[in-house]
Amino acid sequence: MPDILVDGKYELNGDVYIQGSKNSVLPILAASVLTYGVSVIENCPALSDVRASINILKYLGAKCSFEGNSLTIDSRNISDYKIPDNLMREMRSSSLFLGAILGRMGKAEISSPGGCELGPRPIDLHIKALSELGATVKHKGGNILLQSKNGLVGSEIHLAFPSVGATENILLASVLADGITVVTNAAKEPEIEDLADFLISAGANIEGAGSDKIVIKGVRKLFGTRHKVIPDRIVAATYISCVAATGGNINLINAVPNHIRSVISAFEEAGCEFKERDNILSVKANDRINSISTVRTLTYPAFPTDAGPQLISALSLSKGTTVFVENIFQNRFRYIDELKRFGANIKVEGKVAVVEGVESLSGTECECTDLRGGAALVVAALAANGTSKIRKTEHILRGYENIVRDLSGLGARIKYI
Ligand code: UD1
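Above: the input record for the complex with uridine-diphosphate-N-acetylglucosamine. Below: its predicted structure, written as tokens.
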């Protein structure tokens, strides 16, 4: 993978188009397994995680063609129920295929997803919910086999925690189940609503997606459809962090401000100015930003864990000290050691990071530890004096279609080498 080279300290100005959402498109691609027809997914971001999903779809028997940002999936001949270990490992979110394959084939087998860069990634809530819909669960070596010999049956499912992935797996498994499923304490993220919209347009009967209670009435069949993926709120939050760190005035084209209210308020408190008109969100940042009151990551609509690293990176240049509490993932702070190479002053204790703003950062060589941690390094490099080299950029490609193109378009001196 090429490294990214950044010559820092240039203001960002101009327009940037916000790509389709990674966390929406991945469950939607899994959902296409449930349809008996051809679907077209528009505004599909060209990401390595999307390519990994396409590889899984092809393995299962689908035909896929990806042109521009339009992905066509023909799911008529899906015939396999097992995802081999090598394809599972290509992507963290492959467990989303469980509910979809189970719904279509009556059985599904995957290898255990295990851990990831952010800590253990259990799927106990997914498995419990799918068994409540009537699936039997067997552990075979490192694999999990789910089976529903007599078909899945609608049920009342209360999630102990509003897990995004578990809510998605329940939607996927229940749309073709017999009878009514009611999910309480469901995740409310905009990506859940987008998945439900895709399923509804394919013929599913779902009410309440986006709230904490979702009601799904099983239907007999889903059909091919056309769906446009929502804009990526985390990419929007990333570019806001970039301009907050460098100063300037940028327009996020195709952003949805309502999806990032908590992020906008944090940066407003830090001194950035926002303007909203139609689908354009403008962000203006002057001098060094200010520290802000304690930020706590939580489920939507609270501050998203995926935008934390980029905010912390911008705050490392703020006037004052900010306390940041990470409540969702255990190992989310690994990138902070890399931020310290730039001269950032951040102390971590357990799930709390204390960011003491410094007057300037210095360019350095650093390594991405994970996707959003990698984005945080880009934020720091853009604002640092001198040149920075960022390695292990494959992490960034999982979630950003072309961060170098986007930031160059805004006037950053950034390139792949
Ligand atoms: C999704 C997003 C990810 C985001 C996260 C939280 C996708 C593809 N990924 O991940 O970018 O950071 O939401 O907004 O959409 N948990 C369990 N048992 C389970 C499931 C989850 O203990 O069965 C725990 C997790 O370890 C984590 C927390 O619940 O601590 C949140 O996980 P969840 O909401 O499920 O996140 P993901 O769907 O994995």
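Notes for the reader.
The pocket of uridine-diphosphate-N-acetylglucosamine is lined by residues 23, 26, 93, 121-126, 161, 163-166, 191, 304-306, 328-329 (CB under 6 Å).
The two ends are 9 Å apart (CA to CA).
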